Amino acid sequence: MTDAFSLSGRVALVTGGASGIGGGIAEMLGEAGAIVVIADIDEAHAAQAAEALRAAGCEAGHIQLNVADEASVQRGCAEVVKHYGTPWALVNNAGLQDRQLLLDGTVAEWDRVMTVNARGPFLMSREVARAMVAGGNGGRIIHIASAALIGALTQGHAIYASSKAALLGLTRASALELVGHNITVNTILPGGVATPGAIAAQGPAPEGPGRRMPPLGMCSPRDIGAAVLFLASPAAAKVTNQNFAVDGGWSIT
Ligand SMILES: NC(=O)c1ccc[n+]([C@@H]2O[C@H](COP(=O)([O-])OP(=O)(O)OC[C@H]3O[C@@H](n4cnc5c(N)ncnc54)[C@H](O)[C@@H]3O)[C@@H](O)[C@H]2O)c1
Fold it and tell me: Which residues sit with their C-beta closer than 6 Å to ligand 1?
C-alpha cells in the first residue's frame, strides 16, 4: 500500500463497529494500519469484534457508549482520548433501520430513530471535533447515511430517510466550521447490505422500487469500508463536504 492510503499509528473511532457495515469499516481501517476503537452500545459484541481484529494482526480496542446519550458520549470520548489518543478519524456508522409506514407513524418512533441516527452523529462529531481541534493535527469525520436519499426507496422509510437526510445538513455545516482546522467532513451513502441489522429490521415488508438488485450486485460491509478508508486516508486531504454513494450502481437503474 502506498503511504497515501496508510493510517499507520492513527486512531480511528468507529461507532456501531460491533456489527455489519461497521465491522467491515473497522477491518479496512485496521488493515491500513489504524488503531481502531470500536464504540458500540453492545459491549460484548464490541469486545468480540476488537478481539477478532487483533487476531487478524490489527491494533484494536473497544469502548461501550450510547451515541444518543450526551453523558455517555462525553464519557466515552474522554476515555478514548485518554487511553488511545485523539482520534484522527471518526466514523459515525451506528444507526437504526426499522421501518414504519408514514400513515402508522408515531412520535415515539420518530424520536427513537432520530436520537440514534441524527442526534448521535451530532454529539459524536461535536465531542470528537473538540478533541481534534485541541490536538491541532486535523482529522476526518465520515457519516454513514443511505443511498435511499438519492436512489429508489422502499416503503416504511419516512422516518429513516429523514434521519439520514439530517446527516447531509450536518456534513455541509460542519465541513464549513471545521475546514480551518484541517478537519474534513464527508458522507457515504451505502446501498443495500445484508447485515444483522438489515435482516432483523422491524416493520412492513420492504416493498417498492428500492427492492431491485443493483447491477453490480449487493454491497458487502468491506465495500463500504473501502470508501471510508479513502476518505479517512491522507489521499483524501482535499476532499470535504462530499456525499459519496457506494450502491453497486443502484442509482443508475
Ligand atoms: N445494511 C444496509 O442495507 C444499510 C444501507 C444503508 C445504510 N445503512 C446504515 O449503515 C449503518 C450500519 O448499519 P448495519 O446494517 O451494519 O446495522 P447493524 O444493526 O448490523 O449494526 C449497527 C451497530 O450499531 C450499534 N448501535 C445501535 N444503536 C447504537 C447506539 N445508540 N449507540 C452505539 N451503538 C449503537 C449496534 O449495537 C450494532 O453493533 C447504519 O447507520 C445504517 O442506517 C445500512
Answer: 15-16, 18-22, 40-42, 45, 66-68, 93-95, 97, 116, 120, 144, 146, 190, 192-193, 195-198
Q: Which residues contact 157 (CB under 8 A, 6 or more apart)?
A: 99, 148
Note whether residue 173 is domain-resident.
yes
How far does the centroid of ligand 1 lie from the alpha carbon of residue 225, in Å? 13
Q: What CATH number does residue 91 fall under?
A: 3.40.50.720
| CA-wise closest residue to 73 among 122, 117, 111, 110 | 122
Residue type, 156: G
Q: Which of 72, 97, 116 maximizes ligand 1 atoms within 8 Å of its Cβ, making it the mutation to test the pocket?
A: 97
Domain count, the chain: 1
| Domain membership of residue 85 as a residue range | 3-246
User: Is 185 part of a structural domain of the chain?
Assistant: yes
- 97: CA distance to ligand 1 center in Å? 7
- State the pTM of this model: 0.98
pLDDT in tens, 186-244: 999 999 999 999 999 999 888 888 888 999 999 999 999 999 999 999 999 999 999 99
Q: For residue 187, list its beta bridge partners.
A: 143, 243
**Catalytic-role residue among 160, 183, 188, 233:** 160
